[in-house]
Amino acid sequence: MNRKKREGRLDRGDELLExxxxxxxxDDEQLLPALVAAIGSDPDADLSIADWMGSIPSEESARRLVxxxxxxxxxxxxxxxxxxxxxxxxxxGIAAAAREEEPSExxxxxxxxxxxxxxxxxxxxxxxxxxxxxxxxxxxVLVLSSIVNDRAGMRQVGERATNKSGLKETFADLAxxxxxxxxxxxxxxxxxxSEAYRRGAPRDERGGGYPLLRADFYTDPASPVPSPLxxxxxxxxxxxxxxxxxxxxxxxEQEMAGWVLPEDMVKVHHARFRDAQDSSLVLSKDQMTERxxxxxxxxxxxxxxxxxxxxxxxxxxxxxxxxxxxRREGPARRCLALHQALSxxxxxxxxxxxxxxxxFTSFLHLLPRDAPEGAGREADADPSSLxxxx
Length: 390
Description:
By secondary structure, the protein is of the alpha+beta class.
């Protein structure tokens, strides 16, 4: 209430009360009944009555003020004056002036909703989309999206609000561009994202970056959780052997068609492969095949058997999980068999068809365009034929 306006209304109210014959200087016992009887005669008079009643330290005055306040008068200035008068009486020890708190709606405890995780398959370079989503109290969903790489770390991260239909459209668009998303346990995705960030933060990170964005989903530290992959295995040796024999059929899956060896790990072997083709020596077809096969063979030994073994063990484990979550159990079990084989340091890998095919595919772009027709058909029929010689 504006002080000047309030004083003006109170002065006018006093004049109106005096005009009704009320002696404002009378004793409290005489003044209170007169004031109560005048309630409702005029808005400004009511304001003055409420103010005067706050100066009468009696239980009756307090009860009348409480009843008046509960009637919820429309005059905002009057409501404030009633509240102030009751407070003054409370300060003077008048028990009836203690205003009961209005009953409020019971507090509804909203059960915390665990964030949902979303994953795309790994591409040939070890990159994938890893997202978290959760409902927003005001409606829609909040999405934490990232691109992570199993060697370089987190490449991009961002947060946005959308609705369920918008998220569904986004997933459909990603699937059309070769990055289908499947729902995954939120804690597993959180662990993947946190580990990626630990390996390397996005270059354009500003402000609080990923840790601040993650706080909108989880506040406790990320930690590894049991993988749903446990539902698939471990595979029995005989079963794993059968799956490994047919593992090259994974190249028929769109999600794995681009898998090749990491460029930085195989570049030395690529140089040797080019040098072998550029040799000034006159070689027969069989001699050239022997030389090129030897280069690929050495790459297999040094990269797949040794340097990249742990890397691919983890990648096949993640792809086994992805196919499992996508309810594609055939590819899931083949990837699991590859994961188990690569995880066994004493296991020789050259008889595994997918790994042989991956080694060959990593050199396919270096083969001369005018390669003999028969050699091309042989590679199409069994790419591993250039690696494991009889």
